[in-house]
Amino acid sequence: MKKKALVIGTKGTSRDIDWPLDLDAMQKCVGGLIQYVRDAKGKEIVLPNGSLGVMRECIVNEEGLMLGLDPNVLASLFVNGGDINGIYNLVGPAIVVYEERDGSGADYINKSIMDALSNILDEKRVVIHLGDFEEE
Length: 136
What we know:
The protein is globular. The chain is 28% helix and 27% strand. It has helices spanning 23-30, 64-67, 73-79, 106-124, and strands spanning 4-8, 14-17, 34-36, 44-46, 51-61, 94-104. A hairpin with a 4-residue loop joins strand 4 and strand 5.
């Protein structure tokens, strides 16, 4: 299957890019020196178009923390396999290289969200306040 890539910005925006890229182009995408993220390979992800994919690589700015780049929540979720408490907290733009899979990401998203909420509630025993409702 052909690898594809997208750049994920720190505000949750994404854009498709041609893959493979040379070193200079990768550095332009992440705004500096590149670093490959360990453990990114093989994670299932839901792409911005709603389809499923399997991550093959994730590339970020090697000096992102030192430069004070903004957090990249979406890329962090991808690398952490949807776990919001995962060990990777990526910063700055990220290049995500993936292969598309057949099917829709909707069921995967719903399951991931429910699993994440269940884990949070189980671990922290959080009470979610939905607000007060008044009858008219």
